[in-house]
Structures are given as C-alpha cells and as structure tokens.
Design brief:
This protein is of the alpha/beta class. The chain is built from 11 helices and 12 strands. It folds into 3 domains: about 120 residues, Rossmann fold; about 80 residues; about 150 residues, Histidine kinase-like ATPase, C-terminal domain (Heat Shock Protein 90, 2-Layer Sandwich). Helices cover about 50% and strands about 20% of the residues. The protein has a 5-stranded parallel beta sheet, with helices on both faces. The protein has a 5-stranded mixed beta sheet with strand order 7-9-10-12-11, with helices on one face. A two-stranded antiparallel sheet has the order 6-8. The longest helix is centred in the middle third of the chain and has 49 residues.
C-alpha cells in the first residue's frame, strides 16, 4: 500500500440519494469509492475488496452503525472508520471510541472537512500516526467529563431533593402557623410579638440552610470553565462533605474532614474541577464501603504542593484491579451502577491542573486516594 495512491473509500448509508450524491462527489475528486446501503452489505464488500477508509452512518435500520463498526474492527482491524451522525452525541463518541473508530462528523457533511478526515484516516492506516486529528482527543475528553458529571448529578439528585425539601417543609409549616396565629384574637401584643419572632427565626434559619445547599449544588453542576483563583482546601473538602453526607449517613457511614498539623492550605487552582474530583472519590468510597464505615478527607501540603487524601475503611482494591482502575470504562461495580469514567476523568482533570493522583490499597485494608496539585497554578 502506497500513501501516494488515493485512499479506497466505502460509503455506508441507508439514504440512497445522499449515498449516490456523496459518492459521485468523492469520485470527481479522484477517490475510488464504493457504496453500501446497509451494514451487512458493507461487510460483504470488505470481505471481497480492499478498502482503506469506511465512511459509516450511525443511524441505519437493522444493523446500526455502531454494530457495523464493531464487526468491521473484528474482521478488518486496519480499516479506518469515520462515523456520520445527525448530531454530535455523547453516546456515539463513547461507543465509537470503545470499538476503535477514527473520528466522527455531523450531517450535513461539509465535503472539504470529510476529505480532510479521510486523508487523516488514510495516513494513519499507512502508518503515519500524525494523521490523527489531535482535536478529537480534546473533544472526547470534554464529553467524558460531561458524562461523568451527569452520572454524579444523577446519584446526588435524590439526596439533594431531600435536603432541600426538609427546610422548605419547615418554612411552609412556620409560615402557615404565623398566618393562623396572626388571625387569632385575644393575645397580648408582647406575647404575639415573641411568638412571631420565634417563627421568623425558624423561617430565616431554614431559608439560609436551603440557600447553602442549593448554592453548593449549583457550584458543582456549573459548566467546567477554566477558573483559577485562590481557594481554601478546607472549605472545598467541607463542601464535598455537605454534598455527600446524607447518602453516607443513610448507610451509617461517617465522613470527616481533618487537617495535617502545620499544613499549608491556601491554593491557587480551579475549585470547580477539584470539587468534581473529590466528589468522585468520596462517592466511590461510599459505594465501596456499602454500610457502616468511615471516610476521612485529610487536607495537607507544603509550600509547593497541596494535598487532599480521601481515606476509607472499605474492602480495598485487589492488586489486579489496582493496575486498571484509571482505564476508561473499567469498573468493579455491578452493571448499571457506574460508567467506568470517574477515575479516568478525575486523573485527566488533575493532570491538566499540573498535579497527579496516587492510590494506596490492599484487599481488606481500605483505600487511600491522594490528590496532589501545585499550590500556585497560573
């Protein structure tokens, strides 16, 4: 195979008009192009003829694009695949990455961009690794962060709703009592004033509590824009504890925040990204312990590096699993209880902040994750 020769392309799409039109446009630009209207037909062509790059639609009746991709990679692993989708959805990105696609484009397809992708894919098939469009890695990393953030939000939703509903119930009851008491007659002005003051104190306290909870939740769920500012790691750890304590308390798990003696605490970094990392680690610890245990967030550091350790007394991690826990999609949780993205995303975040994640564990002896970031991040 010679890289100076044009790539042999196979177009796969169930929309025949689109297929014929795009095929003609590629042929006019000198690319030998075959077409198929279904996944099974595409696989038959690949078995008979040499193809360098497959341009594959995601949404097709019968065998869809993801299943076709999987079978292509099983039978013809060196063939590169560019996916076409109606919208740049997360599912396509993650599933496509799992089965080894090259990249994806959204419809309607811009021909210059498609030609560029085909050329990049062909160069990689020929052994030129620089052909890979480097922006895809960044795009996928953003998708993974969003996926893990949404997963964490789903786990928090029930406890957050409970946290907010309790103080709101106090507000409702106190306000109702206040209205009925004000309507009653025969009370002295001093007695009524004292009763009203007590009711108002309850209302103000409950409103303040609801505001703190919702603010913490909103700070976590906001988009992960790059925000670098001075933060206190003790405050950050306390916020994470407040977001997770109810789920832990329901399973009789205690969460504590401690501080190393003489620790240098102030840090200049991105609080939103660090909060997501810590929330992932604490949530994982709660799920690992399951019931009746303890989690400790220990804050420390020196003049150059800040450190937060998340320590649990759960079942620990086996040596075999310890080597794989940061791999995307790897999880030891039951099916439906985790995406396998949390630790991979967390490590990516910490490394972008100039730091690292360390883990210490052995079966039956709990687990310690240590997040280390520079004290001053430009």
């Amino acid at each position: 195979m010679n890289q100076t020769d044009p790539p042999r392309v196979l177009l796969v799409d169930d929309e025949t008009d689109f297929l014929e039109s795009l095929g003609q446009r590629l042929r006019l630009r000198g690319l030998p192009t075959l077409t198929a209207v279904s996944g099974p037909e595409a696989l038959e062509i690949l078995d008979r003829q040499q193809v360098d790059v497959v341009v594959l639609d995601v949404r097709m009746p019968g065998m869809d694009g993801i299943e076709t991709l999987r079978r292509i990679k099983e039978s013809h692993p060196r063939v590169e695949v560019v996916m076409l989708t109606g919208h740049a959805d997360l599912e396509t990105s993650l599933e496509g990455m799992r089965f080894g696609f090259f990249d994806y484009l959204t419809k309607p397809v811009q021909l210059p961009l498609l030609l560029e992708k085909i050329d990049d894919a062909f160069r990689r098939r020929c052994g030129d690794e620089t052909g890979r469009n480097e922006t895809f890695t960044d795009k996928l990393q953003e998708h993974m962060i969003v996926a893990d953030r949404l997963s964490s939000l789903g786990e928090l939703a029930a406890s957050i709703a409970h946290e907010i509903n309790n103080p709101l119930a106090v507000i409702s009851e106190s306000a109702g009592w206040l209205r009925s008491r004000a309507d009653r007659e025969g009370l002295s002005t001093e007695e009524l004033r004292s009763a009203l003051d007590r009711a108002l104190e309850k209302i103000e306290s409950a409103v303040d509590r609801a505001a703190r909870i919702s603010q913490n939740f909103l700070r976590f769920s906001r988009a992960p824009d790059a925000v670098v500012r001075a933060i206190d790691l003790r405050d950050l750890a306390a916020e994470v504890r407040e977001l997770t304590w109810r789920a832990a308390a329901q399973n009789e798990i205690e969460i504590m925040v401690t501080e190393d003696p003489g620790a240098e605490i102030p840090v200049t970094s991105d609080p939103y990204q660090l909060r997501q990392v810590l929330l992932n680690l604490v949530t994982n610890a709660v799920q690992a312990i399951k019931r009746d245990g303890r989690i400790e967030l220990t804050v420390g550091g020196d003049e150059d590096w800040a450190r937060i350790a998340v320590i649990d007394d759960g079942p620990g991690i086996s040596d075999e699993d310890l080597e794989r826990i940061f791999e995307p999609f790897f999880t030891t949780k039951q099916e439906g209880h985790g995406t396998g993205l949390g630790l991979a995303v967390s490590r990516g975040i910490v490394e972008k902040l100039g730091g690292r994640i360390e883990v210490e564990s052995r079966p039956g002896a709990g687990c310690t994750f240590i997040v280390v970031v520079p004290r001053h991040r430009g």
